[in-house]
Amino acid sequence: MDVHAFVFPCNQCLLLFLVVLLLHVFLFSAISAIAALQDNSNDLSSLLAFKAASTSGGDASSDNIIIANWTTDAPFCTWIGIGCSRRRPGVISLNLNSFSLQGTISPYLSNLSFLSSLDLSNNSLSGIIPETLGRLPRLVTLILRWNLLSGPIPRSIFNMSSLVSIGLSSNNLSSSLPTLIVMLPRIEWISISDNLLTGHIPADFARCSTLQRICLNINKLTGSVLSSLGNLSKLVHLSLGENQFIRAISTLIGNLTKLQYLFMGINNLEGKIPKELGNLVNL
Ligand SMILES: *[C@@H]1O[C@H](CO)[C@@H](O)[C@H](O)[C@H]1NC(C)=O
Ligand SMILES: *[C@@H]1O[C@H](CO)[C@@H](O)[C@H](O)[C@H]1NC(C)=O
Ligand SMILES: *[C@@H]1O[C@H](CO)[C@@H](O)[C@H](O)[C@H]1NC(C)=O
Ligand SMILES: *[C@@H]1O[C@H](CO)[C@@H](O)[C@H](O)[C@H]1NC(C)=O
Ligand SMILES: *[C@@H]1O[C@H](CO)[C@@H](O)[C@H](O)[C@H]1NC(C)=O
Ligand SMILES: *[C@@H]1O[C@H](CO)[C@@H](O)[C@H](O)[C@H]1NC(C)=O
Ligand SMILES: *[C@@H]1O[C@H](CO)[C@@H](O)[C@H](O)[C@H]1NC(C)=O
Fold first, then answer.
1. pLDDT > 70 fraction of the chain, expressed in percent and rounded
2. Which InterPro entries does its entry note (predicted)?
3. How many structural domains are present in the chain?
4. Dihedral (C-alpha) 190, 79, 100, 218: value to the nearest 10 degrees?
5. Is 207 a pocket residue for ligand 6 (Cβ < 6 Å)?
6. Is the pLDDT of residue 259 over 90?
7. Rounded to an integer, what is the distance from CA 189 to the centroid of its chain?
8. CATH code for the domain in which residue 196 is found
9. How many whole angstroms from 80 Cα to the centroid of ligand 2?
10. Alpha carbon distance 186, 23 (integer Å)
11. Per-residue pLDDT for 57 more than 60?
């Protein structure tokens, strides 16, 4: 645009203003469209990486339904198991519960930056849980139960500000729970039962004051029960059975007054049953 435009009389100032405004609007929508396309192609390559990794194991995998269905002939929002938002181009949910997946979980799932729900339950996924899953900024639900996953639970999973539910039960996950970083300000439900977890329940769990359900039964956890849980006043369900917990049950159990379900059987507990148990009128 010509610089001389600025010295034009004022009726033309208005015209110039309108032109500049239009130009802005045009540029802005062009930039948004490019950003949307970028998201779109990032999501596409991330889904293709997921498909390749999760159908790579076993003999029966070649006729897996996602191999036939997830083809680039159709937009990925029409693929089976995928939910997209109407407003944005990205994937918001991935629900592949019972899809006979047999490979591993691609670390590139973390490129699905709008993902809020991930459910890969009841497959035969093996290998580790990628550390990158902890970098999904909008993830609310993470359900990987009934698979063959092994190795540690990535520390990053315990530092996700949007996470409400973690379901990792019935896998082969080992190592201890994180002793330091537990930053889950919205968490309501943690289920990691039927795994190979060792060590103590970290004291940091006391900070997850929004927790309502904890299922850690059938593991190899040890230490004392509840010294780190007495603060969780919203707790409704607590199952810690079939572990190696020792020592007496803390009197803090009397603080969990919302508790409706409590299972601590099959452990190495000793001492008295605290009289504070009587406070739990909803049990
Ligand atoms: C994931 O995102 C990174 C960074 O944007 C990019 O370099 C990489 O190619 C993406 N990979 C896949 C498989 O989407
Ligand atoms: C993939 O599955 C969806 C949902 O069942 C279906 O609507 C779509 O037509 C399928 N696409 C292909 C290519 O099979
Ligand atoms: C798990 O998946 C198998 C097929 O792979 C199916 O037969 C079974 O009903 C599923 N179980 C649950 C609890 O969803
Ligand atoms: C799970 O771990 C146990 C004990 O380490 C091992 O015997 C078993 O083979 C593992 N199962 C799978 C599916 O990895
Ligand atoms: C936890 O996550 C926040 C951002 O989500 C990050 O800035 C911080 O470094 C993380 N902390 C640890 C200890 O990983
Ligand atoms: C108990 O919860 C309060 C707030 O909910 C928090 O300030 C405190 O640090 C917690 N106690 C422990 C032992 O973490
Ligand atoms: C348990 O409850 C008692 C009485 O209500 C309270 O004084 C105490 O601070 C609570 N302890 C914890 C760890 O929340």
1. 83
2. Leu-rich_rpt, Leu-rich_rpt_typical-subtyp, LRR_dom_sf, LRR_N_plant-typ, PGIP
3. 1
4. 0
5. yes
6. yes
7. 11
8. 3.80.10.10
9. 6
10. 43
11. yes
